[in-house]
Design goal:
CATH architecture: Orthogonal Bundle
Strand order of the largest sheet: 1-3-2
Distance between the termini: 68 Å
Structural class: alpha+beta
CATH topology: Arc Repressor Mutant, subunit A
Helix content: 40-55%
Shape: rod-shaped
CATH class: Mainly Alpha
Number of helices: 3
Order of helices and strands: EHHEEH
Number of strands: 3
Number of domains: 1
Strand content: 5-15%
Length: about 80
């Protein structure tokens, strides 16, 4: 499925200028059909899957208790 710049901006929660900039920087792959860019929606699937994975890893990390510092019980 192909998206226009406006649709891609809405899908990614970005503004249109940012999407255009990312296309020109070749960070987003797009086809130019003569008057507008068409962006394949499937290229973002991996990005969102990795984002969810890292969110879960971060949540697990934040739930770990902080280990007790061995120097706290020092009797100096």
């Amino acid at each position: 499925m192909y998206l226009t710049i406006q649709e891609a901006a809405d899908y990614l929660s970005l503004n249109e200028e940012t999407v255009k900039s990312l296309i020109l920087q070749k960070k987003i792959k797009a086809l130019f059909d003569g008057d507008s860019y068409l962006i394949n929606k499937d290229q973002f699937t991996t990005h969102f899957e990795q984002l969810e994975k890292y969110k879960q890893l971060y949540e697990e990390y934040m739930k770990e208790p902080i280990p007790e510092d061995p120097d706290v019980k020092d009797e100096d």
